[in-house]
Amino acid sequence: MSTASHDLAMATLADESFMSADDLRSYMTDLEMAKASKMLGAMDKAEEARRKLVATLQDEIDVTPEKIAEIKHSLATKTRAAAGRGETEVLVMRFPSALCTDKGRAINNAEADWPTTLTGRPRQAYEFWREHLQPAKYRLRAMIIDWPGGLPGDIAFFLTWS
């Protein structure tokens, strides 16, 4: 379609006059292309944010007595609030399956050695539970909580007490 005829078609559309079938198909194609372009841009941004998150969570934090006290205080607040609502578990961590050496396969299959696949901060969280919370009879449940494209996405740790 030439620029002049395209401008005429757009002017006609703006007047809400009847469009030819070819003009309507062209308009729909343009809309779909714009939507696809926008979605790709959003997907690129989301993937970049995910890469940054994985990089951040791969770096372990310094576990100081102050940090341990801070984490225990935060968990006490969350567990008391959940218990007050009659709940018996609370989500304590969510992370991409890329932080597991097997991309979450062992967690998904409930294999006994799933903790050995953890890396970075998720491994530290597991170790924190094992050292500080398991002796107090808290349990840690790990599960895949989303499946983008049919593959394991994010993993969640739930602290349970029932």
Provide structural commentary.
The protein has 162 residues and is α+β, with helices and mostly antiparallel strands. The model has no long low-confidence stretch (mean pLDDT 86). It has 5 helices and 3 strands, in the order H-H-H-E-H-H-E-E. It is 54% helix and 13% strand. 12% of the residues are buried.
Helix-strand sequence: HHHEHHEE
- The neighbouring-strand order within the major sheet is 1-3-2
Largest sheet: 3 strands, antiparallel
Strand fraction equals: 5-15%
| Alpha carbon gap, first and last residue | 68 Å
Low-pLDDT segments, ≥5 res: none
Helix content: 40-55%
> What's the β-strand tally?
3
The backbone outline, from C-alpha atoms, is elongated
Mean pLDDT: 86
Q: How many helical elements?
A: 5
Radius of gyration: 25 Å
The class by helix and strand makeup works out as alpha+beta
Short note summarizing the structure:
This protein is α+β, with helices and mostly antiparallel strands and 162 residues long.
Describe the protein's topology.
Layout: H1 3-14, H2 21-58, H3 65-84, E1 89-96, H4 105-108, H5 120-133, E2 139-144, E3 154-160
Antiparallel strand pairs: 1-3, 2-3
Question: What are its keywords?
Answer:
162 residues; alpha+beta; 3-stranded antiparallel beta sheet; elongated
